[in-house]
TrEMBL record:
Comp. bias intervals (Basic residues): 80-90
Name under which the protein is recorded: Tubby-like protein
Record-linked SUPFAM superfamilies: Tubby C-terminal domain-like
Organism classification: Eukaryota, Metazoa, Chordata, Craniata, Vertebrata
Keywords: Cytoplasm
GO CC annotations, alphabetized: cilium; cytoplasm
Subcellular location: Cytoplasm
Chief subcellular location: cytoplasm
Protein backbone atom coordinates (compact mmCIF):
# COMPACT_ATOMS: atom_id res chain seq x y z
CA UNK A 1 0.00 0.00 0.00
CA UNK A 2 1.52 3.33 -0.95
CA UNK A 3 1.28 6.28 1.42
CA UNK A 4 1.39 9.49 -0.64
CA UNK A 5 -2.06 10.87 0.12
CA UNK A 6 -2.50 9.94 3.75
CA UNK A 7 -2.28 12.95 5.97
CA UNK A 8 -1.15 11.03 9.04
CA UNK A 9 2.21 9.27 8.94
CA UNK A 10 3.47 6.75 11.50
CA UNK A 11 6.15 8.15 13.79
CA UNK A 12 7.17 4.77 15.15
CA UNK A 13 5.60 1.46 14.30
CA UNK A 14 5.37 -0.24 17.65
CA UNK A 15 3.24 -0.12 20.78
CA UNK A 16 4.86 1.55 23.81
CA UNK A 17 6.45 -1.52 25.37
CA UNK A 18 8.07 -3.03 22.30
CA UNK A 19 11.22 -2.34 20.34
CA UNK A 20 11.26 0.89 18.33
CA UNK A 21 12.42 0.92 14.74
CA UNK A 22 13.84 3.40 12.30
CA UNK A 23 12.97 1.25 9.29
CA UNK A 24 10.69 2.32 6.50
CA UNK A 25 7.14 1.06 6.52
CA UNK A 26 4.30 1.43 4.08
CA UNK A 27 1.55 0.75 6.59
CA UNK A 28 -1.79 2.37 6.01
CA UNK A 29 -2.27 5.48 8.12
CA UNK A 30 -5.22 7.33 9.54
CA UNK A 31 -6.78 9.97 7.31
CA UNK A 32 -8.76 11.65 10.07
CA UNK A 33 -8.50 15.42 9.53
CA UNK A 34 -6.59 17.45 12.09
CA UNK A 35 -8.66 19.65 14.38
CA UNK A 36 -7.89 23.29 13.88
CA UNK A 37 -9.03 25.58 16.63
CA UNK A 38 -9.21 29.37 16.54
CA UNK A 39 -6.29 30.90 14.75
CA UNK A 40 -4.04 32.86 17.09
CA UNK A 41 -1.39 35.36 16.14
CA UNK A 42 1.78 33.29 16.55
CA UNK A 43 3.97 36.38 16.93
CA UNK A 44 2.65 36.99 20.46
CA UNK A 45 3.67 33.47 21.53
CA UNK A 46 7.35 34.26 21.06
CA UNK A 47 7.64 37.86 22.28
CA UNK A 48 9.49 38.20 25.54
CA UNK A 49 9.63 41.97 25.88
CA UNK A 50 12.73 44.10 26.24
CA UNK A 51 16.35 43.11 25.82
CA UNK A 52 18.78 43.47 28.70
CA UNK A 53 20.58 46.81 28.24
CA UNK A 54 24.01 45.25 27.60
CA UNK A 55 22.54 43.13 24.78
CA UNK A 56 21.05 45.95 22.75
CA UNK A 57 23.33 45.22 19.78
CA UNK A 58 21.05 42.89 17.85
CA UNK A 59 21.52 42.02 14.22
CA UNK A 60 19.01 43.89 12.08
CA UNK A 61 18.24 40.94 9.86
CA UNK A 62 14.64 39.86 10.16
CA UNK A 63 12.91 42.89 8.63
CA UNK A 64 15.03 42.82 5.46
CA UNK A 65 14.44 39.12 4.91
CA UNK A 66 10.74 39.60 5.43
CA UNK A 67 10.61 42.44 2.90
CA UNK A 68 12.27 40.41 0.18
CA UNK A 69 9.97 37.46 0.80
CA UNK A 70 6.60 39.06 1.45
CA UNK A 71 5.38 38.21 -2.01
CA UNK A 72 5.89 34.49 -1.29
CA UNK A 73 3.12 34.42 1.30
CA UNK A 74 0.35 34.23 -1.28
CA UNK A 75 2.11 31.43 -3.17
CA UNK A 76 2.66 29.48 0.02
CA UNK A 77 -0.96 29.72 1.07
CA UNK A 78 -2.00 28.55 -2.39
CA UNK A 79 0.24 25.48 -2.18
CA UNK A 80 -0.01 24.53 1.46
CA UNK A 81 -3.34 22.75 1.43
CA UNK A 82 -3.08 21.01 -1.93
CA UNK A 83 -1.60 17.56 -2.02
CA UNK A 84 0.29 16.09 -4.95
CA UNK A 85 1.28 19.42 -6.51
CA UNK A 86 5.05 18.90 -6.46
CA UNK A 87 6.39 18.86 -10.01
CA UNK A 88 9.63 17.00 -9.46
CA UNK A 89 9.91 14.10 -7.09
CA UNK A 90 12.14 11.07 -7.15
CA UNK A 91 9.51 8.90 -5.49
CA UNK A 92 5.96 8.23 -6.59
CA UNK A 93 4.63 10.38 -3.76
CA UNK A 94 4.46 14.06 -4.52
CA UNK A 95 4.83 16.58 -1.73
CA UNK A 96 3.76 20.20 -1.53
CA UNK A 97 6.90 22.19 -2.37
CA UNK A 98 8.32 25.39 -0.91
CA UNK A 99 7.22 28.78 -2.18
CA UNK A 100 9.75 30.76 -4.19
CA UNK A 101 12.27 32.13 -1.71
CA UNK A 102 14.90 34.64 -2.78
CA UNK A 103 18.26 34.01 -1.12
CA UNK A 104 20.44 36.98 -2.05
CA UNK A 105 22.76 36.85 0.96
CA UNK A 106 23.07 33.27 2.21
CA UNK A 107 24.64 34.10 5.59
CA UNK A 108 21.96 36.66 6.34
CA UNK A 109 19.15 34.38 5.18
CA UNK A 110 20.10 31.32 7.26
CA UNK A 111 20.32 33.40 10.46
CA UNK A 112 17.12 35.40 9.86
CA UNK A 113 13.77 34.26 11.27
CA UNK A 114 11.35 32.88 8.71
CA UNK A 115 9.01 35.65 7.51
CA UNK A 116 5.73 35.63 9.39
CA UNK A 117 3.09 33.57 7.62
CA UNK A 118 5.56 31.77 5.33
CA UNK A 119 6.52 28.12 5.81
CA UNK A 120 10.04 27.58 4.48
CA UNK A 121 10.13 24.02 3.18
CA UNK A 122 13.51 22.33 2.96
CA UNK A 123 15.02 18.95 2.24
CA UNK A 124 17.83 17.30 4.21
CA UNK A 125 19.96 14.69 2.46
CA UNK A 126 22.43 12.41 4.22
CA UNK A 127 25.62 11.50 2.36
CA UNK A 128 27.25 8.39 3.82
CA UNK A 129 30.27 8.33 1.50
CA UNK A 130 33.49 7.85 3.43
CA UNK A 131 31.87 6.07 6.38
CA UNK A 132 33.91 2.97 5.47
CA UNK A 133 37.00 5.12 6.11
CA UNK A 134 35.76 6.23 9.51
CA UNK A 135 34.24 9.53 8.35
CA UNK A 136 30.89 10.73 9.63
CA UNK A 137 27.99 11.34 7.23
CA UNK A 138 27.58 14.82 5.77
CA UNK A 139 24.12 16.40 5.88
CA UNK A 140 23.00 18.94 3.29
CA UNK A 141 20.07 21.35 3.54
CA UNK A 142 18.41 22.67 0.36
CA UNK A 143 15.19 24.55 -0.29
CA UNK A 144 12.63 21.95 -1.36
CA UNK A 145 11.62 23.47 -4.69
CA UNK A 146 12.59 23.16 -8.34
CA UNK A 147 15.75 25.26 -7.93
CA UNK A 148 16.93 23.24 -4.89
CA UNK A 149 18.92 26.20 -3.54
CA UNK A 150 21.72 25.07 -1.18
CA UNK A 151 21.47 26.52 2.33
CA UNK A 152 23.66 24.64 4.83
CA UNK A 153 25.91 21.63 5.33
CA UNK A 154 26.72 19.89 8.61
CA UNK A 155 29.03 17.12 9.77
CA UNK A 156 30.11 15.65 13.10
CA UNK A 157 33.69 16.44 14.07
CA UNK A 158 36.11 13.63 14.72
CA UNK A 159 38.13 13.36 17.93
CA UNK A 160 35.66 15.31 20.02
CA UNK A 161 34.73 14.14 23.54
CA UNK A 162 31.09 15.00 22.95
CA UNK A 163 29.07 15.03 19.74
CA UNK A 164 30.03 18.21 17.95
CA UNK A 165 28.56 19.14 14.56
CA UNK A 166 29.97 21.95 12.45
CA UNK A 167 27.50 23.87 10.27
CA UNK A 168 28.72 25.69 7.16
CA UNK A 169 27.29 27.82 4.34
CA UNK A 170 29.69 26.10 1.90
CA UNK A 171 28.99 22.44 1.03
CA UNK A 172 32.71 21.81 0.43
CA UNK A 173 34.19 23.64 3.43
CA UNK A 174 33.29 22.12 6.79
CA UNK A 175 36.30 23.38 8.73
CA UNK A 176 36.11 25.12 12.10
CA UNK A 177 38.44 27.92 11.07
CA UNK A 178 36.97 28.61 7.65
CA UNK A 179 35.09 31.79 6.81
CA UNK A 180 32.04 29.69 5.90
CA UNK A 181 31.62 28.33 9.44
CA UNK A 182 28.19 29.61 10.54
CA UNK A 183 27.43 27.65 13.71
CA UNK A 184 27.75 24.42 15.64
CA UNK A 185 25.74 21.90 17.61
CA UNK A 186 27.30 20.46 20.77
CA UNK A 187 25.97 17.70 23.01
CA UNK A 188 26.52 16.76 26.63
CA UNK A 189 28.43 13.55 27.46
CA UNK A 190 25.24 11.50 27.57
CA UNK A 191 24.16 12.73 24.16
CA UNK A 192 20.73 13.77 25.45
CA UNK A 193 21.15 17.57 25.63
CA UNK A 194 22.34 19.78 22.78
CA UNK A 195 23.22 23.45 22.43
CA UNK A 196 23.31 25.38 19.15
CA UNK A 197 25.80 28.27 18.81
CA UNK A 198 26.38 30.82 16.07
CA UNK A 199 29.93 31.54 14.85
CA UNK A 200 30.83 34.12 17.52
CA UNK A 201 33.85 33.93 19.78
CA UNK A 202 34.26 31.80 22.89
CA UNK A 203 33.63 33.88 26.08
CA UNK A 204 37.34 33.50 26.88
CA UNK A 205 38.08 35.73 23.88
CA UNK A 206 35.44 38.39 24.56
CA UNK A 207 36.06 42.01 23.65
CA UNK A 208 35.21 44.84 26.05
CA UNK A 209 31.48 45.05 25.29
CA UNK A 210 30.96 41.30 24.65
CA UNK A 211 29.53 42.05 21.21
CA UNK A 212 31.78 39.45 19.55
CA UNK A 213 30.81 36.59 21.89
CA UNK A 214 28.88 33.70 20.40
CA UNK A 215 25.14 33.55 20.82
CA UNK A 216 23.23 30.46 21.85
CA UNK A 217 20.54 30.01 19.21
CA UNK A 218 18.70 27.05 20.72
CA UNK A 219 18.96 24.00 22.94
CA UNK A 220 17.38 20.54 22.63
CA UNK A 221 16.67 18.11 25.45
CA UNK A 222 15.70 14.49 24.75
CA UNK A 223 13.90 12.75 27.59
CA UNK A 224 15.53 9.42 28.35
CA UNK A 225 13.19 6.47 28.24
CA UNK A 226 13.04 4.24 31.28
CA UNK A 227 12.29 0.51 31.73
CA UNK A 228 13.37 -0.15 28.16
CA UNK A 229 10.11 1.13 26.70
CA UNK A 230 10.58 2.23 23.11
CA UNK A 231 7.78 4.69 22.53
CA UNK A 232 8.09 7.96 20.62
CA UNK A 233 10.84 10.36 21.55
CA UNK A 234 10.05 13.32 23.78
CA UNK A 235 11.88 16.53 22.95
CA UNK A 236 12.05 19.94 24.58
CA UNK A 237 13.41 22.81 22.47
CA UNK A 238 14.52 26.05 24.12
CA UNK A 239 14.99 29.16 21.96
CA UNK A 240 15.63 32.85 22.64
CA UNK A 241 12.50 34.99 22.62
CA UNK A 242 11.80 37.78 20.13
CA UNK A 243 11.81 41.49 20.90
CA UNK A 244 9.24 44.06 19.81
CA UNK A 245 11.04 44.45 16.45
CA UNK A 246 10.62 40.69 15.84
CA UNK A 247 14.36 40.14 16.22
CA UNK A 248 15.93 37.39 18.29
CA UNK A 249 16.98 38.49 21.77
CA UNK A 250 20.74 37.79 21.91
CA UNK A 251 21.65 35.18 24.51
CA UNK A 252 25.42 35.48 25.06
CA UNK A 253 26.36 33.40 28.11
CA UNK A 254 29.46 34.50 29.97
CA UNK A 255 30.03 31.01 31.36
CA UNK A 256 28.59 27.50 31.30
CA UNK A 257 26.11 28.31 34.07
CA UNK A 258 24.40 31.06 32.08
CA UNK A 259 23.36 29.24 28.91
CA UNK A 260 19.91 28.30 27.64
CA UNK A 261 20.03 24.84 29.26
CA UNK A 262 20.98 26.14 32.70
CA UNK A 263 18.44 28.97 32.55
CA UNK A 264 15.75 26.45 31.58
CA UNK A 265 16.77 23.97 34.29
CA UNK A 266 16.75 26.77 36.87
CA UNK A 267 13.32 27.94 35.58
CA UNK A 268 14.79 31.33 34.73
CA UNK A 269 12.61 31.89 31.64
CA UNK A 270 13.40 35.58 31.04
CA UNK A 271 13.75 36.07 27.28
CA UNK A 272 13.58 32.37 26.50
CA UNK A 273 10.78 30.21 25.07
CA UNK A 274 10.11 26.53 25.77
CA UNK A 275 8.74 24.36 22.94
CA UNK A 276 7.94 20.63 22.76
CA UNK A 277 7.42 17.98 20.15
CA UNK A 278 3.76 17.29 19.46
CA UNK A 279 2.73 14.00 21.04
CA UNK A 280 1.74 11.49 18.35
CA UNK A 281 -1.52 9.58 18.77
CA UNK A 282 -1.67 5.78 18.99
CA UNK A 283 -3.67 4.30 16.11
CA UNK A 284 -5.15 0.85 16.79
CA UNK A 285 -5.78 0.07 13.14
CA UNK A 286 -2.21 0.58 12.01
CA UNK A 287 -0.64 -0.33 15.39
CA UNK A 288 1.51 2.76 15.19
CA UNK A 289 1.85 6.28 16.55
CA UNK A 290 0.69 8.79 13.92
CA UNK A 291 1.07 12.52 13.30
CA UNK A 292 -0.42 14.72 10.57
CA UNK A 293 2.42 15.98 8.34
CA UNK A 294 0.12 17.34 5.61
CA UNK A 295 1.72 15.34 2.84
CA UNK A 296 5.31 16.37 3.62
CA UNK A 297 6.44 13.11 5.28
CA UNK A 298 5.88 9.68 3.76
CA UNK A 299 7.97 7.12 5.70
CA UNK A 300 7.71 5.95 9.29
CA UNK A 301 10.70 6.80 11.50
CA UNK A 302 11.43 7.50 15.15
CA UNK A 303 13.08 10.67 13.84
CA UNK A 304 9.79 12.16 12.57
CA UNK A 305 8.68 15.06 14.77
CA UNK A 306 6.78 18.34 14.96
CA UNK A 307 7.73 21.18 17.33
CA UNK A 308 4.95 23.31 18.80
CA UNK A 309 4.32 25.94 21.49
CA UNK A 310 2.21 24.71 24.38
CA UNK A 311 -0.24 27.61 23.97
CA UNK A 312 -1.02 26.80 20.33
CA UNK A 313 -0.36 23.18 19.29
CA UNK A 314 -1.85 23.86 15.84
CA UNK A 315 0.97 26.27 14.92
CA UNK A 316 3.82 24.05 13.73
CA UNK A 317 7.08 25.87 14.51
CA UNK A 318 9.06 23.12 12.77
CA UNK A 319 8.51 19.64 11.39
CA UNK A 320 10.97 17.00 10.24
CA UNK A 321 10.46 13.57 8.73
CA UNK A 322 11.66 10.86 6.41
CA UNK A 323 10.76 10.67 2.72
CA UNK A 324 13.43 8.15 1.59
CA UNK A 325 16.35 6.16 3.03
CA UNK A 326 18.65 9.18 3.21
CA UNK A 327 16.25 12.04 2.52
CA UNK A 328 14.08 14.03 4.91
CA UNK A 329 11.88 17.09 4.71
CA UNK A 330 12.46 19.92 7.19
CA UNK A 331 9.95 22.77 7.30
CA UNK A 332 10.17 25.75 9.64
CA UNK A 333 8.13 28.84 10.49
CA UNK A 334 8.63 32.10 12.39
CA UNK A 335 10.49 32.59 14.70
CA UNK A 336 13.03 29.91 13.71
CA UNK A 337 15.87 30.52 11.28
CA UNK A 338 17.46 27.88 9.04
CA UNK A 339 20.48 27.36 11.32
CA UNK A 340 18.26 26.72 14.35
CA UNK A 341 16.00 24.29 12.51
CA UNK A 342 18.86 22.43 10.78
CA UNK A 343 20.76 22.03 14.06
CA UNK A 344 17.63 20.70 15.80
CA UNK A 345 17.25 18.20 12.94
CA UNK A 346 20.94 17.21 13.21
CA UNK A 347 20.48 16.45 16.91
CA UNK A 348 17.91 13.79 16.00
CA UNK A 349 20.53 11.89 13.97
CA UNK A 350 23.00 11.61 16.82
CA UNK A 351 24.05 8.04 17.53
CA UNK A 352 24.42 8.49 21.26
CA UNK A 353 20.76 9.28 21.89
CA UNK A 354 19.84 7.22 24.92
CA UNK A 355 16.21 7.60 24.03
CA UNK A 356 15.54 5.53 20.93
Amino acid sequence: VSVPFYSHVPVSLHPPATTGSDEEDNSDASTKPIRSGKKKNPVSLFQTGGDPPRERKTRKKAPKAAESEEETLETQQKNSNKKGKGKKSKKKEERPLSPVIEVDNLEKFVLSPAPQGVTIKCRVTRDKRGMDRGLYPTYYLHLDNDKKVFLLAGRKRKKSKTSNYLISIDPTDLSRGGENFIGKLRSNLMGTKFTVFDNGANPDRANADWSNVRQELSAVVYETNVLGFKGPRKMTVIIPGMNSDNERVPIRPRNDNDGLLMRWQNKNMDNIIELHNKAPVWNDETQSYVLNFHGRVTHASVKNFQIVHGSDPDYIVMQFGRVADDAFTMDYNYPLCAVQAFAIALSSFDGKLACE
